[in-house]
Amino acid sequence: MSDARIGSSFRDPSGFLFTRDGVLLRQVQERYRRHYERLKASGLYETLVHGGLLVPHEERPLSDAAEEGAAFVLRPERIPFISLPYEWSFSQRRAAAVLTLRIQQFALQHGMTLKDASAFNIQFHGVRPVLIDTLSFEVREPGAPWIAYRQFCQHFLAPLALQARVDVRLGQLLRQYLDGIPLDLAAKLLPGGLKLTLWQLLHINLHARSIAKHAATKARAKAAKPRAVSDRGIEGLVSNLLDAVAGLEWKPEGTEWGAYEETLGYDRADREAKHSVVGSFVRESGARTVLDLGANAGEYSRVARAAGAQYVVAADGDEMAVERGFRRLTAEGDTGIHPLWMDLSNPSPSQGWAHGEWPSLVQRGPFDVVMALALVHHLAIGNNVPLASVASYLAQLGRQVIIEWVPKSDPQVQRLLTAREDIFDRYTEEDLRMAFAEAGLDALQVKPVGSSGRMLYRFGD
Amino acid sequence: MVMPPEVTYAYLDPISGSVILQALIAGALGAILSIKKVSWAIRGYFSRLFKRDKQ
């Protein structure tokens, strides 16, 4: 029996997460007892779990505790894939923000409050956001301010405002600022003057100024006795934040891949052939989990689902494509596909203190199957990555790899080569097979994609 | 009003400037919400009345 503590689970002394023989457990410390008991007794836990807002758990005997000091041991339901806030599209982030505020509203109705509002506490089950930190609640003392107000603004309001009002790519600041975008930075980047809205003025601009003003030690001492915040005041604050967040819209203009499905690639027969071959490869692989790299809006993630995969992570580097995938899946209600934004030439690293808080993409694998359909030429030619390196990376991400090989003669590859010299002598199918053989994977199946000249490979051992 | 002792258990640094601003604006935002609630209630009352008239 060996316990492994989850890397990100050290900041809050109320408890911690650990795994034992692959089972995820949460130890709740004695100091948090009162708050946990209120969570259960007030009916808040029941309300949130019933509504799908909070991850459910079962209580385990105290003998399951990892160390001394335990009041309770919980076994939370596991989320199939942990995604990080800088891997979400705009609407994913907004859904997570709305969820956080709704939970705070329920908590206030039950005499409790959220003591933190970290975006990392929200996870997606497919497209459905859920709070995973059961220890985020505390009993609200009369007159106490909402301690997590600043964190909410930094983790949610500031990035959403920047993405909607300035540029959607600014969401990527979250990869650097793990505790959310500093409000003074957001205030600098957001439009002012006539474009200033009331909520931006209050929650970002004045908020940033107030933080700077009272940062000096003299002011800090004076601030030790802040004015009380009434129940109605907190309710008003949360309601105003909810209006602000719900009112933010990203109206995307045509990004490069946003319209890919409609405009590029295949004639109909080839597309049908690709659907059928990808489906048969996934079925024969027996995959339960699939990582679809370069998924666009998730067309082939759906094919993988239909072919028996239980959970598919549909990753793409185009904000618009991920956004479209999320909106469509939300409308359809399929919670078996998780859209994910990621620059595939610079996948998420391990992050945070001592590189151990948030896992890299590889650390979150391996998946049963990685699909890279019409992606390799972007990496190999668009980004100069040698095929051997592509193969060895994909072999780390998945036990099997499904590749759509796009030959040099294909118009899509020619397009990449129009403005540059062809220095890619080793971009051949033979080199691809050799690269995967070196990575320990053999070609198990090979089939052409209709008459397109493209080939589908399934590599495995 | 002195901060209740439990708040000091919170592991997040409350950041004085943030708490002070919150105390300043929460009253007004709470009042706005109350006005909104009254207007929703009035609108709800009349729309129900209107529906009943139609029937």
Structure characteristics:
heterodimer; A: 461 residues; alpha/beta; Rossmann fold; 7-stranded mixed sheet; 16 helices; globular; B: mainly alpha; 1 helix; disordered N terminus
End-to-end distance of chain B: 54 Å
Content-based structural category of chain B: mainly alpha
- Percent range for helical residues of chain A? 25-40%
**Percent range for β-strand residues of chain A:** 15-25%
How many strands, what sense, and barrel or not for the largest sheet of chain A? Answer: 7 strands, mixed
Instruction: Please tell me the total number of domains of chain A.
Output: 3
Biggest β-sheet: strands ordered side by side in the sheet of chain A: 12-11-10-13-14-16-15
Give the CATH superfamily of the largest domain in chain A: Vaccinia Virus protein VP39
Give unreliable regions of chain B as ranges.
1-8
Question: Can you tell me about this structure?
Answer:
The complex is a heterodimer of chains A (461) and B (55). Chain A is α/β, with parallel strands linked by helices. Chain A folds into three domains: 3-76, no CATH class; 85-247; 260-460, Rossmann fold, CATH 3.40.50.150. Chain A is built from 16 helices and 16 strands. Chain A has a seven-stranded mixed β-sheet with strand order 12-11-10-13-14-16-15, with helices on both faces. In chain A, strands 1-2-3-5-4 form a five-stranded antiparallel β-sheet, with no helix packed on it. In chain A, strands 6-9 form a two-stranded antiparallel ribbon. In chain A, helix 12 links the parallel strand 11 and strand 12. Chain A is globular, with a radius of gyration of 24 Å. Chain B is mainly alpha-helical and 55 residues long. Chain B has one domain (16-54). Chain B has one helix and no strands. The longest helix of chain B has 39 residues, at 16-54. Chain B is rod-shaped and about 55 Å long. The interface between A and B is large, with 48 and 32 residues.
